[in-house]
Amino acid sequence: MSKPLQYSSPGSNHLALLLAMRGSVFFIEVVLLIIFYAIGMRASLTAVAIVMALQLLTNIFTAMRLRRERPVGDAEFFGHIFLDIAALTAIFYLTGGYANPLIWAYLLPLIVAAIILPSFYAWVTTAITIGCYATLIFWNVPLEHVHDGHTNAFNLHLYGMWFGFVFSAGIVAHFVVRLSSALRDRERQLSQAREKMFEQERVVALGALAAGAAHELGTPLATMAVLTREMEVEHQGDADLKDGLQLLRQQVDRCKDILSSMAKLHGQPRADSASAMSLQIFLQDVFERWQELHPVTPLTVKLDGVDEIKNILAERTLSQAITHLLDNAAEASPAGIEVVASGNTRELDLQILDHGNGLPEQHNIGEPFVTTKPHGQGLGIYLSRTVIEGLGGTMSIANREQRGAVVHIRIPVQALQVNV
Protein backbone atom coordinates (compact mmCIF):
# COMPACT_ATOMS: atom_id res chain seq x y z
CA MET A 1 0.00 0.00 0.00
CA SER A 2 1.33 3.38 -0.91
CA LYS A 3 2.30 5.58 1.96
CA PRO A 4 0.41 8.80 2.55
CA LEU A 5 2.24 12.07 2.65
CA GLN A 6 3.69 12.51 6.09
CA TYR A 7 4.78 15.73 7.71
CA SER A 8 5.41 16.76 11.26
CA SER A 9 2.44 18.07 13.22
CA PRO A 10 2.54 21.84 13.79
CA GLY A 11 1.22 21.19 17.30
CA SER A 12 4.19 18.93 18.01
CA ASN A 13 6.62 21.61 16.82
CA HIS A 14 4.94 24.19 19.04
CA LEU A 15 5.02 21.83 22.01
CA ALA A 16 8.77 21.42 21.50
CA LEU A 17 9.10 25.21 21.58
CA LEU A 18 7.01 25.34 24.75
CA LEU A 19 9.33 22.77 26.31
CA ALA A 20 12.29 25.03 25.50
CA MET A 21 10.45 27.99 27.04
CA ARG A 22 9.92 25.99 30.21
CA GLY A 23 13.68 25.60 30.43
CA SER A 24 13.98 29.38 30.33
CA VAL A 25 11.34 29.78 33.03
CA PHE A 26 13.12 27.21 35.18
CA PHE A 27 16.33 29.22 34.76
CA ILE A 28 14.46 32.33 35.92
CA GLU A 29 13.28 30.51 39.04
CA VAL A 30 16.80 29.35 39.86
CA VAL A 31 18.11 32.91 39.43
CA LEU A 32 15.32 34.15 41.69
CA LEU A 33 16.27 31.78 44.49
CA ILE A 34 19.95 32.69 44.16
CA ILE A 35 19.12 36.40 44.42
CA PHE A 36 16.94 35.84 47.50
CA TYR A 37 19.67 33.86 49.19
CA ALA A 38 22.40 36.38 48.27
CA ILE A 39 20.63 39.42 49.73
CA GLY A 40 19.47 37.58 52.80
CA MET A 41 15.78 37.20 52.02
CA ARG A 42 14.26 33.91 53.14
CA ALA A 43 11.56 32.15 51.16
CA SER A 44 9.85 28.81 51.70
CA LEU A 45 12.66 27.01 49.92
CA THR A 46 11.34 23.49 50.58
CA ALA A 47 7.94 24.20 49.05
CA VAL A 48 9.55 26.01 46.13
CA ALA A 49 11.84 23.04 45.52
CA ILE A 50 8.82 20.71 45.44
CA VAL A 51 7.08 22.88 42.84
CA MET A 52 10.24 23.00 40.72
CA ALA A 53 10.57 19.21 40.96
CA LEU A 54 6.99 18.87 39.70
CA GLN A 55 7.90 21.17 36.82
CA LEU A 56 10.81 18.92 35.89
CA LEU A 57 8.51 15.89 36.04
CA THR A 58 6.03 17.66 33.75
CA ASN A 59 8.84 18.39 31.30
CA ILE A 60 9.82 14.72 31.25
CA PHE A 61 6.24 13.67 30.44
CA THR A 62 6.08 16.38 27.76
CA ALA A 63 9.28 15.08 26.16
CA MET A 64 7.79 11.56 26.16
CA ARG A 65 4.61 12.95 24.58
CA LEU A 66 6.65 14.40 21.72
CA ARG A 67 7.80 10.87 20.79
CA ARG A 68 4.23 9.78 20.08
CA GLU A 69 2.86 10.11 16.55
CA ARG A 70 -0.58 11.38 17.63
CA PRO A 71 -0.81 15.10 16.75
CA VAL A 72 -1.07 17.72 19.49
CA GLY A 73 -4.43 19.51 19.36
CA ASP A 74 -5.30 23.00 20.55
CA ALA A 75 -7.02 21.76 23.71
CA GLU A 76 -4.01 19.67 24.72
CA PHE A 77 -1.63 22.54 24.03
CA PHE A 78 -3.81 24.84 26.14
CA GLY A 79 -3.59 22.27 28.94
CA HIS A 80 0.20 22.56 28.88
CA ILE A 81 -0.05 26.36 28.98
CA PHE A 82 -2.41 26.11 31.97
CA LEU A 83 0.05 23.86 33.84
CA ASP A 84 2.82 26.41 33.26
CA ILE A 85 0.66 29.24 34.60
CA ALA A 86 -0.28 27.15 37.64
CA ALA A 87 3.40 26.38 38.36
CA LEU A 88 4.36 30.06 38.08
CA THR A 89 1.49 31.02 40.37
CA ALA A 90 2.64 28.53 42.99
CA ILE A 91 6.22 29.83 42.80
CA PHE A 92 5.13 33.47 43.05
CA TYR A 93 2.73 32.68 45.92
CA LEU A 94 5.62 31.22 47.91
CA THR A 95 8.01 34.08 47.08
CA GLY A 96 6.15 37.28 47.84
CA GLY A 97 3.22 37.18 45.43
CA TYR A 98 2.68 40.36 43.40
CA ALA A 99 5.78 41.90 45.06
CA ASN A 100 8.03 39.36 43.33
CA PRO A 101 10.18 41.34 40.86
CA LEU A 102 10.05 38.53 38.27
CA ILE A 103 6.28 38.30 38.11
CA TRP A 104 6.55 39.57 34.50
CA ALA A 105 7.28 35.90 33.60
CA TYR A 106 3.49 35.52 33.33
CA LEU A 107 3.87 37.16 29.93
CA LEU A 108 5.80 34.20 28.48
CA PRO A 109 2.98 31.61 28.39
CA LEU A 110 0.57 34.41 27.46
CA ILE A 111 2.67 35.37 24.41
CA VAL A 112 2.94 31.74 23.32
CA ALA A 113 -0.81 31.24 23.65
CA ALA A 114 -1.57 34.44 21.72
CA ILE A 115 0.70 33.43 18.82
CA ILE A 116 -0.17 29.74 18.52
CA LEU A 117 -3.67 29.10 19.85
CA PRO A 118 -7.01 30.28 18.43
CA SER A 119 -8.46 33.50 19.82
CA PHE A 120 -10.78 31.70 22.26
CA TYR A 121 -7.92 29.92 24.04
CA ALA A 122 -5.77 33.07 23.89
CA TRP A 123 -8.44 35.14 25.68
CA VAL A 124 -9.03 32.38 28.23
CA THR A 125 -5.28 32.32 28.92
CA THR A 126 -5.33 36.11 29.33
CA ALA A 127 -8.21 35.91 31.82
CA ILE A 128 -6.50 33.16 33.82
CA THR A 129 -3.21 35.09 33.94
CA ILE A 130 -4.91 38.30 35.09
CA GLY A 131 -6.91 36.37 37.68
CA CYS A 132 -3.79 34.70 39.08
CA TYR A 133 -1.95 38.02 39.24
CA ALA A 134 -4.88 39.65 41.07
CA THR A 135 -5.13 36.73 43.49
CA LEU A 136 -1.45 37.10 44.41
CA ILE A 137 -2.14 40.67 45.55
CA PHE A 138 -4.31 39.40 48.41
CA TRP A 139 -2.93 35.92 49.04
CA ASN A 140 0.79 35.27 49.22
CA VAL A 141 3.59 34.27 51.52
CA PRO A 142 5.48 37.50 52.36
CA LEU A 143 9.24 37.42 52.01
CA GLU A 144 11.29 37.73 55.16
CA HIS A 145 14.65 39.50 55.15
CA VAL A 146 17.37 39.62 57.75
CA HIS A 147 17.99 43.37 57.61
CA ASP A 148 15.70 46.14 58.80
CA GLY A 149 14.07 48.57 56.43
CA HIS A 150 13.06 48.20 52.87
CA THR A 151 16.45 48.76 51.25
CA ASN A 152 16.89 45.12 50.25
CA ALA A 153 13.35 44.86 48.91
CA PHE A 154 13.75 48.07 46.92
CA ASN A 155 17.11 47.00 45.51
CA LEU A 156 15.59 43.64 44.64
CA HIS A 157 12.88 45.36 42.62
CA LEU A 158 15.42 47.52 40.79
CA TYR A 159 17.58 44.54 39.91
CA GLY A 160 14.50 42.54 39.01
CA MET A 161 13.17 45.25 36.70
CA TRP A 162 16.49 45.48 34.83
CA PHE A 163 16.88 41.74 34.62
CA GLY A 164 13.25 41.38 33.56
CA PHE A 165 13.68 43.83 30.69
CA VAL A 166 16.86 42.22 29.40
CA PHE A 167 15.62 38.67 29.73
CA SER A 168 12.12 39.34 28.38
CA ALA A 169 13.52 41.19 25.34
CA GLY A 170 15.82 38.30 24.51
CA ILE A 171 13.32 35.53 25.23
CA VAL A 172 10.48 37.18 23.30
CA ALA A 173 12.70 37.79 20.27
CA HIS A 174 14.03 34.24 20.41
CA PHE A 175 10.69 32.48 20.66
CA VAL A 176 8.85 34.76 18.25
CA VAL A 177 11.54 34.03 15.65
CA ARG A 178 11.29 30.30 16.30
CA LEU A 179 7.51 30.33 16.23
CA SER A 180 7.51 32.31 13.00
CA SER A 181 9.90 29.75 11.52
CA ALA A 182 7.59 26.95 12.65
CA LEU A 183 4.63 28.70 11.02
CA ARG A 184 6.57 29.05 7.78
CA ASP A 185 7.44 25.34 7.94
CA ARG A 186 3.77 24.56 8.41
CA GLU A 187 2.81 26.62 5.39
CA ARG A 188 5.48 24.91 3.31
CA GLN A 189 4.26 21.48 4.41
CA LEU A 190 0.67 22.41 3.57
CA SER A 191 1.82 23.63 0.17
CA GLN A 192 3.61 20.33 -0.41
CA ALA A 193 0.48 18.45 0.66
CA ARG A 194 -1.66 20.44 -1.78
CA GLU A 195 0.85 19.82 -4.56
CA LYS A 196 0.89 16.11 -3.75
CA MET A 197 -2.91 16.00 -3.80
CA PHE A 198 -2.90 17.73 -7.18
CA GLU A 199 -0.40 15.14 -8.44
CA GLN A 200 -2.65 12.34 -7.23
CA GLU A 201 -5.66 13.92 -8.95
CA ARG A 202 -3.71 14.04 -12.20
CA VAL A 203 -2.78 10.37 -11.82
CA VAL A 204 -6.44 9.47 -11.22
CA ALA A 205 -7.40 11.43 -14.32
CA LEU A 206 -4.74 9.63 -16.35
CA GLY A 207 -6.00 6.32 -14.97
CA ALA A 208 -9.53 7.10 -16.10
CA LEU A 209 -8.18 8.11 -19.50
CA ALA A 210 -6.19 4.86 -19.73
CA ALA A 211 -9.25 2.80 -18.76
CA GLY A 212 -11.29 4.45 -21.49
CA ALA A 213 -8.52 3.94 -24.03
CA ALA A 214 -8.19 0.28 -23.06
CA HIS A 215 -11.90 -0.24 -23.63
CA GLU A 216 -11.83 1.50 -27.01
CA LEU A 217 -8.69 -0.33 -28.19
CA GLY A 218 -10.11 -3.77 -27.46
CA THR A 219 -12.23 -4.01 -30.61
CA PRO A 220 -9.62 -2.85 -33.16
CA LEU A 221 -6.97 -5.11 -31.62
CA ALA A 222 -9.31 -8.09 -31.85
CA THR A 223 -9.97 -7.24 -35.50
CA MET A 224 -6.24 -6.96 -36.18
CA ALA A 225 -5.61 -10.34 -34.54
CA VAL A 226 -8.24 -12.04 -36.71
CA LEU A 227 -6.95 -10.44 -39.92
CA THR A 228 -3.36 -11.35 -39.06
CA ARG A 229 -4.24 -15.02 -38.58
CA GLU A 230 -6.17 -15.04 -41.87
CA MET A 231 -3.22 -13.49 -43.69
CA GLU A 232 -0.87 -16.08 -42.19
CA VAL A 233 -3.06 -18.84 -43.60
CA GLU A 234 -3.30 -17.17 -47.02
CA HIS A 235 0.47 -16.56 -47.34
CA GLN A 236 1.92 -19.75 -45.89
CA GLY A 237 4.20 -20.12 -48.90
CA ASP A 238 5.88 -16.74 -48.45
CA ALA A 239 8.42 -17.31 -45.66
CA ASP A 240 9.48 -13.66 -45.29
CA LEU A 241 5.92 -12.39 -45.16
CA LYS A 242 4.94 -15.18 -42.78
CA ASP A 243 7.71 -14.21 -40.35
CA GLY A 244 6.59 -10.59 -40.46
CA LEU A 245 2.98 -11.57 -39.85
CA GLN A 246 3.99 -13.75 -36.90
CA LEU A 247 5.88 -10.83 -35.38
CA LEU A 248 2.88 -8.58 -35.97
CA ARG A 249 0.56 -11.10 -34.33
CA GLN A 250 2.89 -11.39 -31.32
CA GLN A 251 2.86 -7.62 -30.87
CA VAL A 252 -0.93 -7.53 -31.16
CA ASP A 253 -1.20 -10.32 -28.58
CA ARG A 254 1.13 -8.39 -26.31
CA CYS A 255 -1.10 -5.32 -26.58
CA LYS A 256 -4.13 -7.44 -25.73
CA ASP A 257 -2.33 -8.93 -22.71
CA ILE A 258 -1.46 -5.46 -21.45
CA LEU A 259 -5.06 -4.31 -21.80
CA SER A 260 -6.29 -7.46 -20.04
CA SER A 261 -3.87 -6.84 -17.17
CA MET A 262 -5.10 -3.26 -16.87
CA ALA A 263 -8.67 -4.49 -16.64
CA LYS A 264 -7.77 -7.04 -13.97
CA LEU A 265 -5.76 -4.56 -11.92
CA HIS A 266 -8.42 -1.85 -12.02
CA GLY A 267 -9.92 -1.51 -8.55
CA GLN A 268 -7.86 -4.33 -7.02
CA PRO A 269 -5.96 -3.91 -3.76
CA ARG A 270 -2.22 -4.01 -4.03
CA ALA A 271 -1.89 -7.48 -2.47
CA ASP A 272 -4.34 -8.92 -5.03
CA SER A 273 -2.31 -7.59 -7.95
CA ALA A 274 1.05 -8.97 -6.87
CA SER A 275 2.92 -12.07 -5.79
CA ALA A 276 5.57 -12.59 -3.10
CA MET A 277 9.14 -13.47 -4.10
CA SER A 278 12.72 -12.49 -3.40
CA LEU A 279 13.94 -9.14 -4.67
CA GLN A 280 16.57 -10.76 -6.88
CA ILE A 281 14.02 -13.00 -8.63
CA PHE A 282 11.69 -10.05 -9.12
CA LEU A 283 14.38 -7.87 -10.70
CA GLN A 284 15.75 -10.68 -12.85
CA ASP A 285 12.24 -11.40 -14.14
CA VAL A 286 11.71 -7.74 -15.05
CA PHE A 287 15.07 -7.50 -16.83
CA GLU A 288 14.67 -10.81 -18.69
CA ARG A 289 11.20 -9.89 -19.92
CA TRP A 290 12.47 -6.54 -21.11
CA GLN A 291 15.46 -8.11 -22.89
CA GLU A 292 13.18 -10.56 -24.72
CA LEU A 293 11.21 -7.63 -26.13
CA HIS A 294 14.38 -5.66 -26.98
CA PRO A 295 16.86 -8.26 -28.27
CA VAL A 296 18.81 -5.67 -30.28
CA THR A 297 19.72 -3.49 -27.26
CA PRO A 298 22.27 -5.13 -24.91
CA LEU A 299 21.34 -4.91 -21.23
CA THR A 300 24.12 -5.27 -18.64
CA VAL A 301 22.85 -6.02 -15.15
CA LYS A 302 24.81 -5.96 -11.89
CA LEU A 303 23.03 -7.07 -8.71
CA ASP A 304 24.62 -6.71 -5.29
CA GLY A 305 23.02 -7.78 -2.01
CA VAL A 306 19.49 -8.06 -3.36
CA ASP A 307 19.43 -11.86 -2.99
CA GLU A 308 19.14 -11.50 0.80
CA ILE A 309 15.91 -9.50 0.64
CA LYS A 310 12.92 -11.85 0.76
CA ASN A 311 9.11 -11.59 0.74
CA ILE A 312 8.95 -8.84 -1.86
CA LEU A 313 5.46 -7.95 -3.02
CA ALA A 314 6.16 -7.91 -6.76
CA GLU A 315 3.27 -5.84 -8.03
CA ARG A 316 2.85 -5.14 -11.71
CA THR A 317 2.89 -1.36 -11.36
CA LEU A 318 6.48 -1.40 -10.09
CA SER A 319 7.66 -3.73 -12.85
CA GLN A 320 5.94 -1.47 -15.39
CA ALA A 321 7.63 1.59 -13.88
CA ILE A 322 11.07 -0.01 -14.25
CA THR A 323 10.19 -1.20 -17.76
CA HIS A 324 9.20 2.34 -18.82
CA LEU A 325 12.54 3.67 -17.58
CA LEU A 326 14.43 0.92 -19.42
CA ASP A 327 12.50 1.76 -22.60
CA ASN A 328 13.50 5.42 -22.34
CA ALA A 329 17.13 4.54 -21.70
CA ALA A 330 17.17 2.17 -24.69
CA GLU A 331 15.71 4.84 -26.98
CA ALA A 332 18.44 7.24 -25.91
CA SER A 333 21.18 4.59 -26.12
CA PRO A 334 20.39 1.79 -28.62
CA ALA A 335 23.97 0.51 -28.37
CA GLY A 336 23.36 -0.68 -24.82
CA ILE A 337 22.30 0.28 -21.31
CA GLU A 338 23.40 -0.72 -17.81
CA VAL A 339 21.55 -1.45 -14.59
CA VAL A 340 23.22 -1.44 -11.17
CA ALA A 341 21.06 -2.61 -8.26
CA SER A 342 22.15 -2.91 -4.64
CA GLY A 343 20.15 -3.46 -1.51
CA ASN A 344 20.18 -3.98 2.22
CA THR A 345 17.55 -4.49 4.88
CA ARG A 346 16.53 -0.82 4.66
CA GLU A 347 16.68 0.33 1.05
CA LEU A 348 16.79 -0.72 -2.60
CA ASP A 349 19.18 1.38 -4.69
CA LEU A 350 18.65 1.06 -8.45
CA GLN A 351 20.51 2.95 -11.19
CA ILE A 352 19.73 2.83 -14.93
CA LEU A 353 22.58 4.22 -17.03
CA ASP A 354 22.61 4.99 -20.74
CA HIS A 355 25.23 6.29 -23.20
CA GLY A 356 23.06 8.75 -25.09
CA ASN A 357 23.31 12.51 -25.50
CA GLY A 358 22.12 13.23 -21.98
CA LEU A 359 19.59 15.83 -20.89
CA PRO A 360 19.44 19.55 -21.64
CA GLU A 361 20.70 21.86 -18.90
CA GLN A 362 17.19 23.03 -18.02
CA HIS A 363 14.57 20.35 -18.23
CA ASN A 364 11.34 19.31 -16.57
CA ILE A 365 11.66 15.63 -17.35
CA GLY A 366 9.27 13.72 -15.11
CA GLU A 367 6.42 16.19 -15.47
CA PRO A 368 3.39 15.03 -17.48
CA PHE A 369 3.53 15.72 -21.23
CA VAL A 370 7.16 16.90 -21.01
CA THR A 371 9.46 14.93 -23.31
CA THR A 372 12.66 15.28 -25.33
CA LYS A 373 11.52 12.76 -27.96
CA PRO A 374 9.94 14.01 -31.21
CA HIS A 375 6.92 11.71 -30.98
CA GLY A 376 6.83 11.07 -27.23
CA GLN A 377 3.90 11.77 -24.90
CA GLY A 378 5.94 12.52 -21.77
CA LEU A 379 3.95 10.13 -19.58
CA GLY A 380 6.30 7.16 -19.11
CA ILE A 381 8.77 8.83 -16.74
CA TYR A 382 5.98 10.74 -14.99
CA LEU A 383 4.00 7.58 -14.24
CA SER A 384 7.16 5.75 -13.17
CA ARG A 385 8.02 8.53 -10.74
CA THR A 386 4.46 8.52 -9.40
CA VAL A 387 4.59 4.76 -8.72
CA ILE A 388 8.00 5.01 -7.01
CA GLU A 389 7.01 7.99 -4.85
CA GLY A 390 3.79 6.16 -3.96
CA LEU A 391 6.00 3.47 -2.41
CA GLY A 392 7.79 6.09 -0.33
CA GLY A 393 10.79 6.19 -2.66
CA THR A 394 12.60 8.83 -4.66
CA MET A 395 13.62 9.09 -8.31
CA SER A 396 16.10 11.52 -9.85
CA ILE A 397 17.45 11.96 -13.37
CA ALA A 398 20.83 13.54 -14.07
CA ASN A 399 23.59 13.61 -16.65
CA ARG A 400 26.60 11.36 -16.17
CA GLU A 401 30.10 12.79 -15.95
CA GLN A 402 31.26 11.17 -19.21
CA ARG A 403 28.27 10.70 -21.52
CA GLY A 404 24.62 9.85 -21.15
CA ALA A 405 22.17 10.06 -18.28
CA VAL A 406 21.42 8.09 -15.13
CA VAL A 407 18.10 7.43 -13.43
CA HIS A 408 18.62 6.91 -9.69
CA ILE A 409 15.86 5.15 -7.74
CA ARG A 410 15.69 4.56 -4.00
CA ILE A 411 12.82 2.63 -2.42
CA PRO A 412 12.43 1.57 1.24
CA VAL A 413 12.49 -2.22 1.46
CA GLN A 414 9.68 -2.15 4.02
CA ALA A 415 7.36 -0.65 1.39
CA LEU A 416 8.07 -3.60 -0.92
CA GLN A 417 7.77 -6.44 1.55
CA VAL A 418 4.74 -8.51 2.49
CA ASN A 419 3.49 -7.83 6.01
CA VAL A 420 3.98 -11.05 7.94
What distinguishing features does this structure have?
420 residues; two-stranded antiparallel ribbon; Heat Shock Protein 90; alpha+beta; 9 strands
Q: Explain this structure to me?
A:
This protein has helices at residues 10-38, 45-66, 74-94, 107-116, 119-138, 151-234, 239-265, 279-293, 316-332, 380-390, 413-416; strands at 41-42, 144-145, 274-277, 299-304, 312-315, 337-343, 347-353, 394-399, 405-412. A hairpin with a 3-residue loop joins strand 6 (337-343) and strand 7. The chain is built from 11 helices and 9 strands. It is elongated, with a radius of gyration of 34 Å. It has a 5-stranded mixed sheet with strand order 4-6-7-9-8. The chain has a two-stranded antiparallel sheet with strand order 1-2. Strands 3-5 form a two-stranded antiparallel sheet. The protein has 3 domains: 10-194; 196-265; 270-416, Histidine kinase-like ATPase, C-terminal domain (Heat Shock Protein 90), CATH 3.30.565.10. Helix 3 (74-94) packs parallel to helix 5, helix 4 (107-116) runs antiparallel to helix 5 (119-138) and helix 6 (151-234) packs antiparallel against helix 7 (239-265). Helices cover 62% and strands 11% of the residues. With 420 residues, it is an alpha+beta fold.
How many strands in all? 9
Strand line-up of the largest beta sheet: 4-6-7-9-8
State the major sheet. Answer: 5 strands, mixed
The coarse overall form would be elongated
SS-derived structural category: alpha+beta
CA-CA gap between termini: 14 Å
Strand content: 5-15%
Helix residue percentage: 55-70%
Rg (C-alpha, Å): 34 Å
Distinct helical segment count: 11
The arrangement of helices and strands along the chain is HEHHHHEHHEHEEHEEHEEH
Average per-residue pLDDT, rounded, comes to: 77
Poorly predicted regions: 1-10, 267-273
User: Can you tell me the number of structural domains?
Assistant: 3
